[in-house]
Amino acid sequence: VKGSQKCELNCRAIGYRFYVRQAETVIDGTPCDPNGTAICVAGQCKSIGCDDYLGSDKVIDKCGICGGDNTACKVVSGVFKHTLTNLGYHKIVEIPEGATKINITEMSKSNNYLALRSRSGRSIINGNWAIDRPGRYEGGGTMFTYRRPNEISSTAGESFLADGPTNEVLDVYMIHQQPNPGIHYEYIIPGDNVISPQLLAHRRPGEPLNGQLGMPESPSHEDEDLHRETDILTGQSAGTFPVIQPGRFPSHQPENQVPAMQPPRQNREHNWKQVGKTECTTTCGKGSQYPIFHCVNRVTHEEVPEGYCDSSTKPIPEEEACNLFPCPAFWDIGEWSECSKTCGLGMQHRQILCRQIYANRTLTVQQYRCQHLEKPDTTSTCQLKICSEWQIRTEWTSCSVPCGVGQRTRDVKCVSNLGDIVDDEECNMKLRPNDIENCDMGPCAKSWFLTEWSDRCSAECGDGIRTRSVVCMTNHVSSLPLEGCGNNRPSETTPCNNGPCAGKVEWFAGGWTQCSTECGSGTQQREVICVRKTEGNFDVLDPYECSYLEKPPIQQSCYLKPCGSKWFHTEWSTCSKSCEGGFRVREVRCLSDDMAASTQCDSQLKPEEKEPCNTQDCVPEIDENCKDKYYNCNVVVQARLCVYTYYKTACCASCTRVANRQSGFLGRR
To answer: Which parts of this chain are annotated as the region Disordered (predicted)?
Structure first.
């Protein structure tokens, strides 16, 4: 339901999606959410702080202090990244006594294992080369949660988690079997002047704690009456004080509080007597129990209210061992490993250990102790899904050639067990049917194929030749090697003659000159003249005689060798001032032969990018229409009257000079 309806009594019928409001408000004290700490009061959801005040916003900080500012403790964290070479146990980090919020996590999944051992040498998790199954293990005065993700898709590594505090020094090890992926460790240790949680747990009611007197944790009826009477004497209502929880102490006692009345002195007619023991915490494997003391009449031994006995003389129950005989051994079944195959029938394994519980510790024992039990299987078949398979979707196509050797194809797809076409990687590539193969359509008939003779003779006059193309081909569009047509290859040339060359007019070109540049791109020239060819001689004619013929080029580009990088620059810009010295600029770049930017130019030969210009003095232009009409126009300027149209016209020259000076001054600023 919505936030505004959390304190309404809404009920939903089993098996239906609708709900009905039975009442506008629930009973005061009903939790607003299943996992929250807020409660409903008068139909409104109210939060409760860690100080047990309604509406308080105080929370427990990371140091475990209500309303703390995280400064009473110290966070110790790091990453163990050392490269290890030897197989076996390697110490990673030491967890000191009093540590809380312990988190030891492998940074990624590996074949290594984490192990935990006390400083006294007692193994807690994964000791003596025996790998424990994930679960909760007691050690160092706290409970450790051992996690080992086993999902195929998971990449998370192992971890130890514990709330603490520890009551002894613990050592964390790694059983090294493959390269270390990194181990992140973090825990919190108390700072200076911090109340030890262990001291709180073992403190007796009313015992001083660091100079402070704690409130009794379970006051008797007489004490409750005494507190009630004290509240009446101080004029305050008992309902206005919060209940002080264990571990939360008042900073000082109010000065105006009236001393509490002393309880009446107990007589010596009654004493404390052990009347039995508590139930043993375990049925086997060494549990614990405590004696039970009641107040009885010294003579009749009848039980009387505890108020008749002196509470200060009541014996403190001491722990006693019970049910010392070991528990029956049992098979500890580990989790199944990942399936050996992602699809189809595979195998998976699990670890089976014979274990026995004694003194709240689970020990690995010899397997013969579990012989009275049937041993579970250590291996099992598994199948995550049915493998996809190859399917031939079409028949072979026709051969790609009508004769000779060609190819034919067919459609092959990878299909899942649901009938969907999936990526080829989902199927076994080694079993993929061929989707292309060669096909032989038999020998092809072959012939020589010829083009027509060229229309133009190779010589303008005299003897020359004409050409044609000859190719050996099959009787269809595909070409084949020449060997198939035999040795009687037709000729590709034939002679031709356009008549005698005497008296023929033509252009005659001389040799090219040297390249105009020693490197880079340049030009070459040659001389071209019009001549008439006679028997053994040439007569030079006017170019007009050869005008009907295409004249050969008289210039061509040339390139001897690369020049390397050179400086290029643009034209100079316009001068910034027309007189009294300005400057002009241009852009200079170093470019390679292919006109790309380069850094190989000689910096000493770099052209200037800026130079002065128009250094001559400025000659003011005299405007015949702008003159001073009065001799004392300087007074007009001093009085700043040039802003008015009359004075601006009567003293035009003076006002103009002042305006030019002001504009020049502003420009320099």
So the answer is: 248-271
Q: Output the average pLDDT for the chain.
A: 79
Show the CA angle centred on residue 337, arms to residues 336 and 342, nearest 5°: 115
Residue with tokens 């229309």: 455
**What is the pTM (predicted TM-score) of this model?**
0.31
Query: Bigger pLDDT: 520 or 275?
Result: 275
Euclidean distance between CA atoms 335 and 611, whole angstroms: 85
| CATH node for 328-384 | 2.20.100
Q: Domain residues of the chain, as ranges?
A: 1-59, 73-190, 271-322, 328-384
Model pLDDT for residues 59-76, shown as the tens digit of each residue: 888 777 888 888 888 889
Judge residue 281's burial from the number of C-beta atoms within 10 Å of its C-beta, 0-12 exposed, 13-18 middle, 19 or more buried.
middle
Residue 259: is the preceding peptide bond cis (ω within 30°)? no
Amino acid at the residue 511: G
Q: Which of 229, 228, 230, 202 is nearest to 217 (CA)?
A: 202
Q: Report which residue type is found at 354.
A: C
Residues 6+ apart with CB under 8 A from 257: 230, 234
DSSP 8-state code for residue 625: T
Amino acid making up residue 239: G
What is the pLDDT at residue 166? 92
At CA 78, angle to CA 139 and CA 131, rounded to 5?
Answer: 40
**DSSP strand pairing (212-213 vs 208-209):** antiparallel
**pLDDT at res. 227:** 37
Distance CA 390, CA 341 (A): 18
What's the pLDDT score for residue 260? 39
Please give the structure tokens belonging to residue 17.
């999606």
* pLDDT of 486 above 80: no
**Class assignment of domain 73-190?**
mainly beta
Per-residue pLDDT tens over the stretch 435-471? 999 988 877 766 777 788 888 887 777 778 899 887 7
Residue 368: strand, helix, or coil: helix
Q: Is 12 helix (H, G, I), strand (E, B) or coil?
A: strand
Give the helix/strand (H/E) hosting 251. none
Contacts of 394 (CB under 8 A, 6+ apart): 410, 411
User: Cβ(222)–Cβ(307) under 8 Å?
Assistant: yes
